[in-house]
Design brief:
The complex is a heterodimer of chains A (325) and B (371). Chain A has 325 residues and is mostly helical. Chain A has a single domain, classed as MetI-like (MetI-like fold), CATH 1.10.3720.10. Chain A is built from eleven helices and no strands. The N terminus of chain A is likely disordered. Chain B folds into two domains: 156 residues, D-Maltodextrin-Binding Protein, domain 2 (3-Layer(aba) Sandwich); 146 residues, D-Maltodextrin-Binding Protein, domain 2, CATH 3.40.190.10. In chain B, the strands form two sheets. In chain B, strands 1, 2, 3, 4, 5, 6, 7, 8, 9, 10 and 13 form an eleven-stranded mixed β-sheet that branches. Classes of the chains: A mainly alpha (325), B alpha/beta (371).
Chain lengths: 325, 371
């Protein structure tokens, strides 16, 4: 990400007889690096402008037509844009946060196992598998979730609803087939698991040997050593990794679209169907039927998602900075 | 954005196609030399657009029509009823398929593309809508469940929540119904299938169905699934589910036998035909030549199955272009005739147009002016 270019310390030694002017290459490289850095800013600005421009009829246009379109989308359940995007936003954050909670601890566990516990050869194989998992496209997870996991996991959710149903989150009866937030969160957790694991592993491996050996030398057990040296060292990196995972979960479309039975409620009933919907999946579901203003409404919800993703990253940056001090 | 572009591109393409067709016609020998009934005289490229429900049937019709008219190139864009009518009213397509008849404003607007005359709609595709369920011990044994309209409404309304509810047990003395929750599965997207089921419930269930008519599912009962395929796969996934879908998509899943009069009628193409035959024309619609059905959902005709989706084709009585007019007349004549209706029945399980309706359809199509 860093765009600063370091001047080369020693002149190029391609020829010993003729002096080589490294300044020109240096300048060219600096230019290229600057261009790349600026390009990312331009792209971001272009996306933001596109969203604002296309969502404009929503803000500056005929409000009556807007609410008619929104009523049409929702079958009369929502009338204003905020009444429409509110539950969607709630669903998006709920699903993504659940997925992150589910994935986070398992990821850290896998990463620590690979970096500090597993025998060398097993660690290499595991690393490789994690990287492959990270590369599987989300539609595959969606298909697997929709066709295999949904029918298979019902007995488990039913058991939870029966014995833990007194917790409002798990209020029964569990929907059958369980095309619910709980199932979606599980699939998303599996999806973001390899991303978090992969980054966390790399960071844990970079823990200075000196710190680890010092802890062990003071008589710490392996777990105490990890607690004292590895985890504090990796903290900010792990937070960045989770935010990357959260970002993917927030924007995930296909897997949600293929599994979730959508609803428009502010509801925490994870095991019941037709409670929530996410912004991204909603755009994909409604787009084919949308016309002029309808497209604007959907892009407006996209703008909200964009802003939320932005805020989440900003927050993560703040936390990372604090942790780094 | 994308659809708009695609629509525009499609419209432009159609315009070009029509121009080419017109040019091709100019090159031909005088069309009046040939009898209209000579099917082989139709050539050129013709486009229609509209209801996706008709798509499979239209594909079968195109294949059948081209057997006798190998020079006619026909395309159908299943862009949806609303989009199909809009495209038709721009003059880019020869005909539109729609799950809904035209409204008064659209009839008025059609004067621009129909050379001053007004467009008309005729029913071409009647598809029975099945109430599908998955219940171990019943549906996998090939058995039907009997339900009257009020029971269906209460199930889809969340009032009846278990399969062994006394209301169900009383109507199905031969079945051993399990103590299992009912999971309702409905469409999560807008759909003509939903609208037609709701029309049936509204007309027959009375106070048990308090909702307004809509293409969106009106309540929060059960689960939503995208498209007919989504509904079918969701029902397939769990024991105790019930939903609705076009008969052609049902396969060997269990279907509900609906109470009509004193008997329970199992779903079939011919039973749906009977219900349509027992229906009246809606005479109140403005415009000439229109055949709009007012389906008699509350029919008591023995053996009739009253939950049907009627899909219309919309065309002009006068076309600017001679070749297009001849095509429209022969094409609509073919698809609403016996051969075409049988073709659709074989391909999709649709119900053939009953004779008492077909005569009005023929009269309307005959009104297309061909010099």
């Amino acid at each position: 990400m860093s765009t600063a270019s370091k001047p080369s310390a020693s002149p190029a030694a391609s020829s010993l007889t003729q002096p080589v002017n490294g300044q020109k290459a240096d300048r060219v490289f600096r230019g290229v690096a600057y261009a790349c850095g600026i390009l990312i800013l331009v792209t971001l600005a272009a996306v933001a402008l596109f969203l604002l421009f296309r969502a404009w009829p929503l803000i500056g246009g005929d409000q009556q037509a807007n609410s008619a379109v929104i009523e049409n989308f929702t079958g009369g359940k929502a009338k204003s844009f905020w009444g429409y995007v509110g539950p969607l936003l709630f669903g998006t954050v709920l699903v993504a946060a659940l997925a992150l909670v589910l994935a986070f601890f398992v990821s850290i566990g896998i990463a620590l196992f690979i970096s500090h516990y597993a025998p060398k050869r097993l660690a290499a194989v595991l690393s490789y598998i994690v990287d492959i998992l990270a590369a599987i496209p989300s539609v595959i997870y969606g298909l697997w979730g929709g066709l295999v996991l949904v029918p298979a996991i019902y007995p488990f959710w039913n058991w939870i609803a029966e014995y833990l149903g007194w917790i409002p989150l798990f209020a029964g009866p569990a929907a059958n087939p369980p095309r619910t937030v709980a199932t979606v969160a599980l699939v998303l957790a599996i999806m973001i698991l390899p991303i978090i694991t992969s980054i966390a592993r790399d960071i844990f491996l970079q823990t200075p040997k000196l710190l680890e050996e010092a802890a062990l030398g003071l008589g710490a057990t392996k777990w105490e050593m990890i607690k004292l040296s590895v985890l504090p060292f990796g903290k900010s990196g792990v937070i960045s990794a989770s935010m990357l995972g959260l970002g993917r979960a927030l924007g995930e479309t296909m897997a949600v679209l293929m599994i979730l039975s959508p609803g428009l409620k502010y509801s925490f009933k994870l095991l019941q169907a037709s409670q929530n919907q996410t912004i991204a999946a909603n755009i994909a579901a409604q787009y084919p039927e949308a016309d002029g203003i309808g497209v604007s409404v959907l892009i407006g919800t996209g703008l909200v998602l964009f802003v939320i993703t932005f805020l989440v990253n900003l927050l993560a940056r703040r936390i990372t900075e604090k942790a780094g001090k | 954005m994308h659809t708009n572009l695609a629509r525009r591109a499609f419209a432009a393409l159609c315009g070009v196609a029509l121009a080419v067709a017109a040019a091709a016609c100019g090159d031909n020998t005088d069309p009046s030399d040939r009898p209209v009934s000579n099917a082989s005289s139709i050539s050129g490229s013709f486009a229609g657009a509209g209801a996706s429900s008709q798509q499979t049937a239209v594909e079968a019709w195109i294949a059948g029509y081209q057997k006798t008219n190998p020079d006619a190139k026909i395309s159908y864009n299943p862009s949806g009823s609303g989009a199909g009518v809009v495209t038709f009213l721009t003059g880019a397509t020869v005909w539109a398929g729609s799950d809904k008849p035209l409204d008064s404003a659209q009839v008025e607007e059609s004067k621009q593309v129909c050379s001053g005359s007004t467009a008309f709609d005729v029913p071409v595709y009647i598809s029975p809508i099945a109430i599908v369920f998955n219940l171990r011990g019943v549906s996998d044994a090939g058995k039907h469940i009997n339900m009257d309209a009020a029971t269906i409404a209460k199930v889809f309304n969340g009032k009846i929540t278990r399969w062994n509810d006394p209301t169900l047990a009383k109507q199905n003395p031969d079945l051993d119904l399990p103590d299992l929750p009912i999971t309702v599965v409905h469409r999560s997207d807008k759909s003509g299938t939903t609208l037609n089921l709701l029309e049936y419930l509204k007309a027959t269930a009375g106070k048990d169905w308090p909702y307004q008519l809509s293409e969106n599912w009106p309540n929060d009962v059960g689960q939503g699934a995208k498209g007919t395929s989504g509904v079918i796969s969701t029902i397939d996934q769990a024991n105790g589910t019930i939903g609705y879908a076009d008969l052609s998509q049902v396969g060997d899943m269990g279907t509900v036998a609906v109470k009509v009069g004193d008997e329970y009628t199992e779903i079939s193409a011919d039973a749906a035909s009977k219900a349509v035959a027992d229906s009246k024309l809606d005479e109140s619609v403005p415009g000439a030549n229109r055949v709009v059905l007012d389906i008699n959902h509350a029919t008591t005709e023995p053996g009739a199955y009253p939950i049907v989706l009627v899909s219309y084709d919309i065309a002009c009585p006068i076309y600017r272009d001679e070749n297009t007019a001849r095509f429209a007349k022969s094409w609509l004549g073919y698809i609403t005739g016996k051969a075409g209706q049988d073709q659709a029945k074989n391909a999709t399980g649709s119900a053939p147009l009953p004779e008492n309706i077909a005569q009005y359809v023929r009269a309307s199509i005959d009104a297309i002016e061909v010099k």
